Amino acid sequence: xxxxxxxxxxxxxxxxxxxxxxxxxxxxxxxxxxxxxxxxxxxxxxxxxxxxxxxxxxxxxxxxxxxxxxxxxxxxxxxxxxxxxxxxxxxxxxxxxxxxxxxxxxxxxxxxxxxxxxxxxxxxxxxxxxxxxxxxxxxxxxxxxxxxxxxxxxxxxxxxxxxxxxxxxxxxxxxxxxxxxxxxxxxxxxxxxxxxxxxxxxxxxxxxxxxxxxxxxxxxxxxxxxxxxxxxxxxxxxxxxxxxxxxxxxxxxxxxxxxxxxxxxxxxxxxxxxxxxxxxxxxxxxxxxxxxxxxxxxxxxxxxxxxxxxxxxxxxxxxxxxxxxxxxxxxxxxxxxxxxxxxxxxxxxxxxxxxxxxxxxxxxxxxxxxxxxxxxxxxxxxxxxxxxxxxxxxxxxxxxxxxxxxxxxxxxxxxxxxxxxxxxxxxxxxxxxxxxxxxxxxxxxxxxxxxxxxxxxxxxxxxxxxxxxxxxxxxxxxxxxxxxxxxxxxxxxxxxxxxxxxxxxxxxxxxxxxxxxxxxxxxxxxxxxxxxxxxxxxxxxxxxxxxxxxxxxxxxxxxxxxxxxxxxxxxxxxxxxxxxxxxxxxxxxxxxxxxxxxxxxxxxxxxxxxxxxxxxxxxxxxxxxxxxxxxxxxxxxxxxxxxxxxxxxxxxxxxxxxxxxxxxxxxxxxxxxxxxxxxxxxx
Length: 683
What we know:
Layout: H1 3-26, E1 40-52, E2 55-66, E3 72-75, E4 82-90, E5 95-100, E6 103-108, E7 112-123, E8 125-126, E9 131-136, E10 142-149, E11 155-156, E12 164-169, E13 174-182, E14 186-192, E15 204-215, E16 219-232, E17 234-242, E18 247-253, E19 256-264, E20 267-279, E21 282-292, E22 299-301, E23 306-308, E24 310-321, E25 325-333, E26 336-338, H2 345-348, E27 357-361, E28 367-374, E29 383-394, E30 399-410, E31 415-419, E32 425-431, E33 434-435, E34 439-440, E35 446-449, E36 460-469, E37 475-482, E38 485-486, E39 490-499, E40 504-510, E41 513-514, H3 537-549, H4 553-564, E42 588-591, E43 594-596, H5 601-614, E44 632-641, E45 647-654, H6 657-682
Parallel strand pairs: 1-10, 15-24, 29-39
Antiparallel strand pairs: 1-2, 2-7, 3-6, 4-7, 5-6, 8-9, 9-14, 10-13, 11-14, 12-13, 15-16, 16-21, 17-20, 17-23, 18-21, 19-20, 22-28, 24-27, 25-28, 26-27, 29-30, 30-36, 31-35, 31-38, 32-33, 32-36, 34-35, 37-45, 39-44, 40-45, 41-44, 42-43
Helix pairs in contact: 3-4
């Protein structure tokens, strides 16, 4: 019996305590707890709106309490929504709305209650089961949301059913949802509706088409860079109208699922399917194709690509050429010609050759006709020998060993054709310092492969060493030397002849001039085939030391004679071109790995004969042969040689010293006898 009154008393006490607590909240405006450091608070936030065409339009009303005087800033950020209007409806002091960091802030100067109204909108979020509203809101003490949904039979998610109230609205044929959000920092309200026809938003596309056309003899190569900008809606397919006669080779772009070309009634349509929806973004598509051009055609109509479904389209056309075709703009309709320097960087980056013509358009249709003038190619030089160096060593027995080195500059020439002198035997053949196998050509000519001549700008050294046998150089006679004949012209050639010291040339003629030709006009220095890089390191050091010793004539002569005994004669014969005229052979080398030192010219001649008869084999790579330095040096040169052999015609005299001395003694005796007889007659 006594429990009921006590229970009622407890209720009364709780009611009184609640009233006291409410009174405490109400009086918070005038009494601020000393431990509170936040200068402001959003007391309430009410959101009201409706859904229309997949877009939520909301109006938010905020009651903001500034607790103490002084300027403060209150952020009003609605992430995920677009703010369309914002205003201050009530302010106890000076206040302003200031944009800050992509949102807005309320700047207030005096404590009190401020009321702010914000209008915003955002898109509905959708998945396979639900649709709804999602956005981040400023955190308030308590927030509510009232939203009208023009749907029937709205089914809330289980989590929303605890705090969302549903009220049917027959007048507007929908449902009003009232959500108690509390102190939440976001709105995430989802519901499920019965399947209805989706609201179709017509996609709005803008496009730019940059087309590069490279015209060849009978073909036009096309590269089109299409840039889309989706301004509204979404799409998974892109459609482009192609001109008749264009063969599409490739389509490149991000996320392409498939592309196909359909042809109907002479029109071609390209359809590109994407594996993702294109919305509110830019997209780039690259088309590559070609179009045949008739062999005798005097003009070419530029292709016109048109973006199907694009609200606005503009673009550039660039024209380049390949080959001997001359281009000229003949007809232009609906398009403007511009300077090639005005082309966008995107199009310039796709050019393999510079553009000659450029156009710009803003609408369809347009037409550009390019005039074609075909020119015949003029024959030019395919290869040339920039320099030739011939060195011949001559023995008393009539054996000749010649090394001919040429700097060949070839434009994709595969073989160098060489005709050696009659009776000459090839001993060695090198290209770019490496042994190669020459092959037989027509009429006994040699074909030397120029595999090292891959760059037409660089010169490649070609070296030939060949042997000739003549009659012995005795008494008085005539000697004729002929050089190889190349199938390319030679700009300048030098020929150095080493003759035995006791063989004297009285008269020398031919199609060369005496002396060595200067090479100041040659751009690149001559690359010696027998370079120090292929010789042992000690030999390279000796070559450098010899050049230093030459500064002092006596020092050079002493050092030269000292080195000869230790392998100095293994130098390349081109070094002999800078040595004095009077020289004698003291050693020679047939390869970099074997050297001998004959004592007489007879031994040297015998060795040459053995090599010519016994050591020649086919099918193997030739050796690298070094020539000896022997006898007196004679120099000759020739500028501009083409399809003609270098020729030296000389008259020589070779009389052995005992006979010379005897003859002189006889002449002296005759003179003395004559003088004696004259004196006797006078007496």
